[in-house]
Specification:
about 375 residues; alpha+beta; conserved putative lor/sdh protein from methanococcus maripaludis s2 fold; nine-stranded antiparallel beta sheet; eight-stranded antiparallel beta sheet; 3 helices
Length: about 375
C-alpha cells in the first residue's frame, strides 16, 4: 500500500510539471529614437554632409564590340578578377583559329626547311673532303656551297615565319580576352553606363566600381569656421536613412572655396566594414569639441524626459543589444521643444523619444 501511495505521488508531480505553461516570449516594443547630439541651441549645431565612396574605378573594354552579356547589377558586390560583362567574340575567335592554322603551317615549313638543310649540309661535308683533296672541280664546289647557303636562308626564313605566326596568335588570343570585362578591384558596382545590346567603344566606361569599405562624408564649412577644424578634430555623424551613428576619422580639408557660398569642402573618413553607408546618403555632422559656453550640452526632445516619483528626471536609452534602460539625468534650459541635458547621458546615446509608455527596465525594443 505504501508503494502505491508513493507511485501516485510521483505521477501527480510529473503531471503537474507537464501541465505547467512555458513563459511566453514578449514581442519587442516598437519605439522612436534619436541619437543624442551636442548643440549650441535647441536644434544642435550641425552641418549637412553627403556620403561619398573613398575611390571610384571606371571599368572599360579595350576593344569595340556589342555587349552580349552583362553579369552584374548596380549595388552588387564584386571581387577583383570577377567577370563583369562580355562583348561578341565571334570575330576574335575566328582570328584565333586562322592564327593557329598559320602557326601549324609555319611549323611544317620549318620541318621541310630543316630536312633540306640537313641534306645540303651532308652533301657539303662529303664534297668538302673531295674538294680539299683536289678531286672536285671548283665549279662543282661553288654549287655545293650555294645550295647550303640557300638551305640556311630558307630555314632562317621559316623559323622567322613561326615566330611571326605565334605573335599573331598571341594577339588573336588577347583580342578574345579583351572581349571579357574583368573587375580590376573589389568593391560595389556603382552606375552601369551600358547594357546588353549596346556598342562599347575602347576606353568607354561600362560600369564603375566603388570602394566603400571606408567612405568619406563631404561637408561644406563656412570660411569663418574652417580655422576651427583640423585633420584630427573629433566628429560625430548621424545618418537617419539607416538610423545609425558613427564616429568620424581623419579629416581632409579642401583649399579652394566655392565662389558663391564662400564655403570649403572637407571630407571626413568613416570606417564602413558592414557597407551600411552608401554613396549619396545624407548625414548630420557635429564637432563636439568646437562647442563652448554654458549652452554646449546634449539636447533632446522635451517629451523624452520624464519624472520619477522621487522627483528625479530620467530618459530611456537603448543599448547595443536593443534593450531599454532608465537613466537619471540633470536637465538644463529649454529651447523650443528641446531641453538641455547637463549630466546623465553621453553624445551618441540612443534616446527613446516616443513609445516609452510601455517600457520597463530591460525591455526589448525595435526602432
Amino acid at each position: 500500500m505504501r508503494n502505491i501511495t508513493i507511485l501516485l505521488l510521483i505521477v501527480s508531480i510529473l503531471t503537474a510539471c507537464g501541465n505547467k505553461k512555458q513563459p511566453m516570449t514578449k514581442e519587442p516594443i516598437r519605439v522612436d529614437t534619436e541619437v543624442a547630439m551636442v548643440g549650441a541651441n535647441g536644434n544642435g549645431m550641425t552641418y549637412v554632409g553627403v556620403v561619398e565612396e573613398s575611390e571610384a574605378t571606371a571599368v572599360s573594354f579595350t576593344t569595340m564590340g556589342v555587349i552580349k552579356r552583362m553579369l552584374v547589377k548596380e549595388g552588387q558586390m564584386v571581387s577583383r578578377g570577377q567577370l563583369l560583362a562580355e562583348i561578341d567574340a565571334s570575330t576574335s575567335s575566328s582570328s584565333v583559329e586562322i592564327a593557329k592554322a598559320s602557326v601549324n603551317q609555319s611549323r611544317d615549313m620549318v620541318k621541310q626547311a630543316e630536312d633540306t638543310y640537313a641534306q645540303a649540309k651532308d652533301a657539303y661535308d662529303r664534297m668538302k673532303i673531295l674538294h680539299d683533296n683536289g678531286s672536285l672541280p671548283d665549279i662543282k664546289w661553288v654549287e655545293v656551297e650555294t645550295r647550303l647557303k640557300q638551305a640556311e636562308t630558307a630555314l632562317s626564313t621559316a623559323r622567322a615565319g613561326v615566330t611571326s605566326a605565334q605573335a599573331t596568335e598571341k594577339i588573336a588570343h588577347k583580342s578574345v580576352a579583351d572581349t571579357r570585362l574583368i573587375a580590376p578591384v573589389s568593391g560595389v558596382v556603382g552606375k552601369k553606363q551600358l547594357d546588353v545590346g549596346e556598342t562599347a567603344l575602347p576606353s568607354q566606361a561600362v560600369v564603375s566600381i566603388l570602394n566603400i569599405g571606408t567612405v568619406k562624408v563631404k561637408v561644406s564649412i563656412p570660411e569663418t569656421e574652417l580655422k576651427n577644424i583640423g585633420t584630427g578634430t573629433p566628429s560625430f555623424i548621424v545618418v537617419e536613412a539607416i538610423n545609425k551613428s558613427f564616429n568620424g576619422g581623419n579629416i581632409e580639408k579642401g583649399i579652394q572655396a566655392d565662389i558663391t557660398t564662400h564655403t570649403y569642402d572637407i571630407r571626413i573618413n568613416v570606417a564602413n566594414p558592414s557597407h551600411l553607408l552608401l554613396p549619396g546618403m545624407v548625414a548630420s555632422v557635429m564637432f563636439p569639441s568646437l562647442q563652448s559656453g554654458k549652452n554646449a550640452h546634449v539636447f533632446v526632445p522635451v517629451n523624452a524626459v520624464q519624472r520619477q516619483p522621487d522627483g528625479n528626471n530620467f530618459v530611456w536609452i537603448v543599448d547595443a543589444q536593443g534593450k531599454a534602460h532608465r537613466k537619471v539625468v540633470t536637465v538644463g534650459h529649454t529651447s523650443g521643444n528641446r531641453i538641455a541635458i547637463i549630466d546623465g547621458i553621453n553624445v551618441g546615446d540612443r534616446i527613446v523619444t516616443d513609445g516609452y509608455q510601455k517600457l520597463s527596465e530591460g525591455s526589448k525594443v525595435v526602432y
